[in-house]
Amino acid sequence: MPGAPSSEPASVEEPTGPREPLPPKPDQQAPEAVSPTGSPTGAPANARAQSGQYLTTAQGLRLADTDHSLKAGSRGPTLLQDHHLREKITHFDHERIPERVVHARGAGAHGVFRSYGTASKVTKAGFLAADVETPVFVRFSTVLGSRGSADTVRDTRGFSTKFYTDEGTYDLVGNNIPVFFIQDGIKFPDIVHAAKPHPDREIPQAQSAHDTFWDFVSLHTEAQAHTLWNMSDRGIPRSYRTMEGFGVHTFRLVNADGETTLVKFHWKPKQGVHSLVWEEAQIINGMDPDFHRRDLADAIEAGAYPQWELGIQAFPDTEDQMFEGIDLLDPTKFVPEELAPVQPIGLMTLNANPTNYFAETEQIAFHPGHLVPGIDVTNDPLLQVRLFSYLDTQISRLGGPNFAQLPINRPHAPVNDMLRDGMHQTAVHSGVAPYHPNSLDGGCPFMAGQDVGAFVEVPEEIAEAIKERRNPASFDDHYSQARLFFRSMTPVEQDHIIQAYTFELGKCYEAAVRERQLMALANIDAGLCEAVAKGLGMPVPGATVDVPDSEPSPALSQLGGTWPVAGRVVGIVADAGSDLSLVAAAREALESEGIVPLLVAPVGGHLRADDGPALTVQRTYLTARSTEFDALVLVGGASPAPDAMPGRDAKAGEPGATVDPRVVLMASEAFRHGKAIGAWGSGASCLDAAGIPQDAPGIVAGDDPGAVIPALQELLSTHRAWERFPAAGTSA
């Protein structure tokens, strides 16, 4: 059987006995070992592979630990002295050129952020004062895939915002999941290497459904909480517009009086959090791999500007930096909103697409160390390493240290930095004294005081000062929050998580990897573990860790609310026999609510009536698929189009159908995916042809279009007709 990831089977337990590296698989062959000028060397082909039993630095120095950075005490800041960390991260940062190592597949947009002023009590940051408007650029992305990968893969998404404030550039570099895989940034190369395609075959692309990923996360159980979020519907968002964003780390805010507050940042989409179902995501990957970037650009072009509220969870800045038993410096932990409500502090609106993808979206350079007065970092060990890594990465990606001079990265505040020369220097500096202090340039630039907006780090006392590689004991809990998340899901969402685990682990070749991950699931929830094990045809292991229960957090579920319908996309299926005046009225009614209606017809061009309007066709039966729409409106009998023949379109089915098979497929998929469907007149025949009961949940059929459209809009506000998904639930 092909597909074994390595030349020997893996063990369930972590191997600890030293041994030489495994040999290549029988189907593998390295390039001939010749010299740079083509002369034979006589060395074996695999002579350039790694050697030795022990982990070393690039200079051959054996290492005792590669999981913990060197810190000033277990809760203290990471030390620049850590030569192994710097070598490991520096090498990782320069692994790829020119695309990003992670977050390579991205989409971006310009916008504006308007502050409510509600954060002014906890921060002196000028852009968070009342009614201040700040230009922004946002880049959304997947993590694992290359620039050419598909958008709707199951993955964590990046959500990074550059604020061009008049005090300097501030970057909020976050994700759509509030927790991360690892607790210490020294492991970042490891988790990315594990999640990326296998290095021998460079597959699978943009997926975590493979052995090396699950081998890593089942051995590093701190990753289980993030993995569970990824296996939930959060891993396949419907749109960037319906995606939450999180700063992940805990940050420190400083107000005008010098008082400090710890916070976590949240972006809340005004359209609500909404995701795809798994079949939708798979279809879209084939039909339109650019789905998310197209959706974002189309919405902005249509005037349906995406909006998010920025909010903060605020915590007292206590000495232990704990809140309700949760370590605020642990990036694998989140704080339930029931314990610390998210307080809105401003509104972001994206209202312009980039002019040039490369110049803007591809060349934008984020860095969590781009701060402004009033916002400071904490000793979160993942954040501490990011402060080094992001800056280092830009030097490789963008060709040198002057990446801040690229148009998309230029600050909107005066810059007088004494930095000179370097590759791609586009500033023409004057003066002769780029040093401080000086007298030859009149002393300029001068140091600033806090009274004129200088950034001054919070003078935090470091209680422990022992150089050591270890985490505090509070980082040892790897399961309680994973359990909290799973048990906060509705039965429908739990079923989707079970499906995701079963699919992903079913793609793993090694039984040992699947078994080890089931052992982790047993510690999270017995019902979850049993359901996944049953799908894999494997024994159900028992729990090995005593995990405390906690109250579920309803705020974690995506179901149960209603949200604005502006920006949703509705497909109107019509043909020459439809009453086009009613079609025009339906389209106008949808547009009046900010909904984007797309007319789907047998052929392109226009639908014309003898005495009525000519309506522009946006999609045809050939080019449309249900996955593009949030809802469907069927207003015609949809008789077969001229190209309804299998030789032209495999979806057209066999000849002789009274309703075009592609419309039947569109309706049946929309129904299966829980989408609202409206129909009137002869459009009801499409429901019958698809076998859809007219009294099913989420179906609005009748003779009065004036009643169908409002009812459809109301259904859209809940995202899906969730009653169509019978679910048993699994919580133990």
UniProtKB/TrEMBL annotation:
Reactions catalysed according to its record: 2 H2O2 = O2 + 2 H2O
Enzyme class: oxidoreductase
PANTHER family: CATALASE, CATALASE-B
Pfam family membership, one: Catalase
The protein's name in its UniProt record: Catalase
Primary role: Decomposes hydrogen peroxide into water and oxygen; serves to protect cells from the toxic effects of hydrogen peroxide.
Residues covered by region (Disordered): 1-49
Keyword Metal-binding attached: yes
Requisite cofactors: heme
Family per record: Belongs to the catalase family. HPII subfamily.
EC annotation from Swiss-Prot or TrEMBL: 1.11.1.6
Domain (Catalase core): residue spans on this chain: 56-444
Family matches, as InterPro entries: Catalase, Catalase_AS, Catalase_clade2, Catalase_clade2_helical, Catalase_core, Catalase_haem_BS, Catalase_immune_responsive, Catalase_large_C
Catalytic residues (UniProt): 103, 175
Cross-link (3'-histidyl-3-tyrosine (His-Tyr)): 367-390
Entry's Gene Ontology cellular component terms: cytosol
Keyword DNA-binding: no
Superkingdom of this protein's organism: Bacteria
UniProt GO molecular function: catalase activity; heme binding; metal ion binding
Alphabetic keyword roster: Heme, Hydrogen peroxide, Iron, Metal-binding, Oxidoreductase, Peroxidase
